[in-house]
Design goal:
The chain is about 55% helix and about 5% strand. By secondary structure, the protein is mainly alpha-helical. The chain has a two-stranded parallel ribbon. A two-stranded antiparallel ribbon has the order 2-3.
């Protein structure tokens, strides 16, 4: 803690901002939340030296609502929840992710996007998992386009015998 405090003060003196991003925050214990809260108390000249982002599934809100986590909950400035995407947004999301990865052409046929939306219910995490598996299947089949059949196959592979379990596991 002493070294971390020195690091934060040094970063502040250099004009740098420190950001701590905690993914899968729904898995954090109450004790660890309290330790993280103590980190947020480190200040210099009435300025917070660290910004903390909790990223997680909906359960993180349940954890934060516990009475024991009231102190850290009171320090949360912004709370944002990503809603499921519509069919049109799902298509745009897939195209955007491919474009960012360097793809310059259409890979997922409209029927494939409909299947992705059907199986993911518009949740970005599920969209990612299904599309990733579909891309792998298309590669192994040596095809350059992904149709609805490949998406159905990809979803079955990812979901195993319990499709509804997959949906709940990723939400």
């Amino acid at each position: 803690l002493i070294h971390f405090r020195q690091f934060l003060h040094s970063a502040y003196d250099r004009g740098q901002k420190v950001l701590l991003i905690i993914d899968e925050a729904q898995r954090i214990s109450d004790d660890l939340f309290e330790e993280i809260r103590l980190l947020s108390n480190i200040e210099k000249q009435h300025t917070k030296l660290i910004n903390i982002f909790f990223v997680g599934q909906d359960e993180v809100n349940e954890v934060l609502l516990r009475q024991r986590n009231r102190a850290i909950r009171q320090r949360i400035m912004v709370n944002y929840h990503i809603e499921p995407r519509s069919l049109a947004d799902t298509g745009e999301y897939v195209r955007h992710r491919l474009q960012v990865a360097g793809c310059k052409r259409t890979i997922f046929e409209p029927e494939a996007i409909q299947e992705v939306y059907l199986h993911s219910k518009g949740y970005p995490r599920l969209i990612n998992v299904i599309c990733d598996r579909a891309l792998l299947a298309a590669y192994s089949q040596r095809t350059r386009e992904i149709d609805g059949g490949i998406i159905k196959q990809a979803y079955r592979e990812v979901a195993g015998n319990q499709p509804s379990e997959l949906f709940h596991r990723f939400l």
